[in-house]
Write a structure and sequence with these properties.
The protein is an alpha/beta fold. The chain folds into 2 domains: 131 residues, Rossmann fold, CATH 3.40.50; 194 residues, Dihydrodipicolinate Reductase, domain 2 (2-Layer Sandwich), CATH 3.30.360. Helices cover 35% and strands 22% of the residues. Strand 11 and strand 12 form a beta hairpin. Helix 10 crosses helix 12. The longest helix has 19 residues. The structure holds NADPH dihydro-nicotinamide-adenine-dinucleotide phosphate (NDP). NADPH dihydro-nicotinamide-adenine-dinucleotide phosphate (NDP) binds next to helix 3 and helix 8.
């Protein structure tokens, strides 16, 4: 079985240029941090790779957010992390006593960083406990779960944000702005390719290959970045989808989930998106947008750092240079500012639901041999990230 690029390698590639990132971040994070007692308190639920590698470090450097509690099934790990972060032992929760967060005023936001199929339950329990929720992508593994999460946020009168970090990332924002400004001419074609080699020996990939915990496999884990990117790049919603796939069922990794899926979205403007995802191709998170006059190439376009964007006009290529930021700190600061009433909700539950609905349409088309599926259900995003999120924080 080919295993040339694992998730670990992808993350290593993704954080390439970390030194440059630290220097550039200093430039980018210009607004001063709030005093600690005014920062919004976050509880992180699920202490896996993303929490330990990106989210907790992001909270250390965040301007308006701070870590105040952890929720884990492994008490020893949680105690070690809590001690390292200076949290008292009464700030450690298990999944069993999670509902007690309702009585903990230190916690204002709960950040759900669990396997995808657990997002809905833990989001709804946090909302019922009176907390705001930031939930990792994909929002959930079914449309019904997404709808229940949105309804629970409404009933509790709390904010629900989905962790779409690219909505806050300077190069993606700059690409959106150039497209909106007409610098490319009319956008005609978007191509998004998001995938990597899945490694079943890595516990963090094992659940991603298990439909019960992951939902859609490569599509829900990686392809979702392309589904979301085509929508925020074009600032419109697909009205029709067709999809084809190729899953080698003799590969034990794909016993319950799909591997390669390629889809086409048709947009109301006439623009077309070709998207692909796989857990069995060379690692990539890239996209391109072709306009009548020029194109934007992003390769990589959605790594944690070191993204590389260029404006291409015939043979001329010009780098798009924007500050590197800690994308996780920025996104959590945005959520904190939403809670403080200082920022609009850019990636609400409805955004997560739209991607889950579109991914369902993709898999429905796949199951029907590429049959066209209408996705013209009238969704319109409430807030365009390009219109409200600053490139420099
Ligand atoms: P991990 O497997 O590394 O971590 C998940 C954690 O969830 C585990 O460490 C564990 O924490 C907890 N957990 C509870 N029940 C289970 C279970 N049955 N099986 C496995 N874990 C369980 O995953 P990641 O951190 O990589 O991903 C978590 C979420 O974050 C996913 O939804 C993923 O899509 C998203 N993600 C988003 C990224 C982004 O860039 N926005 C990047 C990577 C992931 P504990 O031991 O503390 O209970």
């Amino acid at each position: 079985m080919p295993q040339e690029i694992s998730r670990r390698t992808l993350i290593e590639l993704s954080v390439a240029g970390t030194a440059a990132l630290a220097a550039a971040e200093a430039r980018a994070q210009r607004r001063p941090a709030l005093p600690k007692d005014q920062k919004i308190g976050f509880a992180v639920v699920g202490l896996g790779k993303l929490s330990q590698g990106q989210i907790i470090p992001g909270l250390r450097s965040a301007r308006s957010a701070k870590l105040v509690a952890v929720v884990s099934g492994h008490r020893d790990k949680a105690a070690r992390i809590a001690a390292a972060e200076g949290l008292p032992t009464d700030a450690i929760y298990s999944y069993e006593d999670y509902d007690r967060i309702a009585q903990d005023p230190r916690i204002q936001v709960v950040y759900i960083v669990l396997p995808n199929a657990m997002h809905a339950e833990y989001t709804i329990r946090a909302l019922k406990a009176g907390k705001h929720v930031l939930c990792e992508k994909p929002m959930a593994t079914s449309v019904a779960d997404c709808e229940a999460m949105i309804a629970a946020a409404k009933a509790a009168n709390r904010k629900l944000m989905i962790a779409y970090r690219c909505h806050y990332e300077p190069k993606n924002l700059e690409a959106m702005r150039r497209i909106r400004s007409g610098a490319l001419g009319k956008p005609r074609l978007v191509v998004t390719d998001m995938g990597r080699q899945a490694d079943p020996s890595d516990p963090s990939d094992a659940w991603r290959l298990d439909r019960k915990l992951a939902g859609d496999g490569a599509l829900g884990d990686m392809g979702i970045y392309g589904v979301n990117a085509s929508r925020y790049l074009l600032n419109e919603e697909p009205v029709e989808v067709r999809a084809w796939g190729n899953t080698d069922k003799s590969d034990p990794r794909f016993a319950t989930t799909d591997d390669l899926i390629a889809w086409q979205f048709r947009f109301p403007s006439g623009a077309i998106c070709n998207g692909s995802t796989s857990f069995n191709y060379n690692a990539t998170m890239s996209f391109e947008v072709w306009g009548e006059k020029a194109r934007i190439r992003a390769d990589p376009g959605a790594f944690y750092g070191g993204n590389h964007f260029a404006m291409v006009d015939g043979g001329n290529l010009k780098e798009i240079d924007t500050p590197e930021v800690d994308q996780f700190a920025r996104e959590m600061d945005w959520m904190a500012d939403v809670v403080r009433g200082k920022a609009p909700l850019v990636s609400p539950g409805e955004e997560g639901l739209q991607d889950v609905r579109l991914m369902k349409a993709i898999t429905d088309s796949l199951a029907r041999g590429g049959a066209p599926i209408s996705t013209d259900w009238g969704y319109k995003r409430a807030v365009d990230p390009a219109a409200v999120v600053d490139i420099v924080a």
